[in-house]
Each structure stands twice: as C-alpha cells, then as structure tokens.
Amino acid sequence: MSGPLPVFTHLLHLTDHRATFEHALLTEPRREHGYCVDDMARVLIVATREPGAAGPVNGLAGKALTFLNDAQSYDGRCRNRMDSAGRWQDLPSTEDHWGRMVWALGTAAAHSEVGLVRRLATVQFERAAQTRSPHPRARAFAAIGAAELLSVAPGHTAARELLTGYVATLPDTAPDPEWPWPEPRLEYANAVLAEAMIAAGVALDDAALLDRGLDLLDWLLDLETRDGHLSPTPVTGRGPSDLGPGFDQQPIEVASLADACARAAAADARPAWLEGLRMAAGWFGGDNDLGLPMWDSGTGGGYDGLHADRVNLNQGAESTLAALSTMQQARRYSPVRQ
C-alpha cells in the first residue's frame, strides 16, 4: 500500500503564534471562532508521530503542549475553548476534549523525537490522569493515551491505573449478534471504542479483550464498506435499520477508522486491517460515495464534509488533521517507505 504523504502546509497556515484556529472559510482561518483543545490535542498527535519532523512541525508540537498545559486545572480537568484574544470561554470539565488531551499527551510521551516534549507530555499526562470521565468516548480516548505511554514505560503507575479503570467500565458484550455494538446507534468517532479495547488488550496482556476489540472493529469496518469503498456513519448516526449511504459524512470518522485499523494491524495479521487503511486513504482521494476528493494533497488541507450532492470546501482544523492523520497511518504500513 502506498499513497500520498502528509503535507503540513495548510495546517501551518491555520496556526498563529498561539494555536491552530478551529474553523476556516475555504482556506482562510476564521479567527473569530478561536481555538479548542480538541484540535490542539490532534495537532500534538500528528506533530509528534511525524518521523524526522522539520522545525515548523516540531513548533506545532510545542504550541500544542503549551496550549494544553494552559487548559488544564490542577485536578486534571481541562477547558476546551479559547477566543482569538487568548481568553478561555468555558470551565474545566472531563468531556471528550479531556480524553483527547490525555490521548495526545500519552502519544507525545511515547513517540516524540524531542526529549523535552516527552518529559513535559508525561508531566501533563500525570496531572490529567488524576481524574476520570463519565463519558464513554472520553474514557476511550484517554485509554489509548495510557496504552501509548505504557508501550514505552510499562511500569507507569498512573497510566496503568487509568487503563485498568477504563476496562472496568466496559459494558458486557452486546447480546444481539446482528448488532454487537455497545450502543443502540453508531454515533461519532465510533472506531475509537474498538481501538481502545485493542490498545488495552495489548497493554494489559488481555487476549479476550483484544479479540473483542478486533471483532468489533471487523464488524464496524464491514458495516461501513459499500461497493468496495468506505461509506462512514453520517453526523446523524446510524442504527440497525438505517440504509446507506448516509450524509453528511465527516473526515473524523474516516480518520478514526484509520487509527483503529493501524492499531489492529500491529496486533493481528489479518489482511482486513491493511485493506481498511487503504480504503481510508482512498476516501480522502475520492474513492467515496460521490467520487470526489476530500483533501488538497498539495497543501494537506482537508475538506469539512461530504454532503449528498457536493463537498464542503471549507478546510478547517479537524478535517485537515483527519486527513494528515490518515495519511500518516497509511504510510506507516506502506510496503515501500516514502
């Protein structure tokens, strides 16, 4: 499998001295909407897992770490939204942005090629790991971060306690073999629920949990494949009786599948995971329900959504980071390193 390389030009264009702007009007940042932890966590992930990153990409990691540190409270909770003047707009909580922050900090601690980034990310991780979230996706994001840190520091107490606590919250296996998903409907970033099980199964040497995560991802990948290409769950969700394709489709769904397939491929030799990665990269390249490209491969800018009749050509941070993340994962498993 080979494909286009991640290109950081547009992401850098969306970023000022403080952070990456959340939204864009076509290619131009919409400064009036400010910044968010959700996106800066994603920035930290893609920046620190980019091998041999040039100075500007390393600079993104530094900005992300500073932003996340400023967002955190001493008790581990964090704010999410900051306006363009640098003022926080909300109170600390443990919503999804907290989980994404923990995921990013664990990833940076495990994969950054810069020693200072690894050390600072570990300190911030330990602060964030003091608390827990009641929200399933936030817990799953955080579990992946804990598993990443344990991959390089198996004795890390806070990471292990966070991960074992996550496993204890998992619901029993769904009783309906036709709908094994742990929720009555697919919602958003769905593959993260399977990926967290896989990550925890590997980190805790729990073969049953690993197999459960793999089986769940296999079911999801099959459900979201249509005529040989990905047709991901739309923003309205998907239930057992819903027929595809559904719209609007969001790039973050595809990136979530790519992340989960990459983690599955590292733990299991089934060819389905590499095929899933190929389809995820292909979705951005135009192998989707409309046959239209979902990113600008020259700048790395990702388009904000696939509607029933057109592409949303705005290139916001979430969509751009989803494209970059997907291309990183596809490159990781390319037989010819580019």
Describe the structure.
This protein has 338 residues and is mainly alpha-helical. The chain has two domains: 1-33 and 170-338, no CATH class; 52-163, no CATH class. The chain has helices spanning 9-13, 37-48, 55-71, 96-111, 115-128, 136-152, 157-169, 191-203, 207-223, 251-267, 272-285, 317-332, and strands at 24-25, 28-29, 35-36, 81-82, 225-226, 229-230, 295-296, 301-302, 305-306, 311-312. The strands form five sheets. A two-stranded antiparallel ribbon has the order 1-2. It has a two-stranded antiparallel sheet with strand order 3-4. A two-stranded antiparallel ribbon has the order 5-6.
Write out the strand line-up for the largest beta sheet, numbering strands in chain order: 1-2
Shape call: globular
Strand content: 5-15%
Tally of separate helices: 12
N→C terminal distance: 11 Å
- Give the class from helix and strand content and strand pairing: mainly alpha
**What characterizes the major β-sheet?**
2 strands, antiparallel
Q: Roughly how much helix do the residues carry, as a percent range?
A: 40-55%
Q: Low-confidence parts lasting 5 or more residues at pLDDT below 50?
A: none
CA-atom Rg in angstroms: 18 Å
InterPro entries: 6-hairpin_glycosidase_sf
Keywords: Transferase
GO molecular function: transferase activity
Organism: Mycolicibacterium psychrotolerans
Summarize the structure.
The chain is mainly alpha-helical and 338 residues long. The protein has helices at 9-13, 37-48, 55-71, 96-111, 115-128, 136-152, 157-169, 191-203, 207-223, 251-267, 272-285, 317-332, and strands at 24-25, 28-29, 35-36, 81-82, 225-226, 229-230, 295-296, 301-302, 305-306, 311-312. It folds into two domains: 1-33 and 170-338, no CATH class; 52-163, no CATH class.
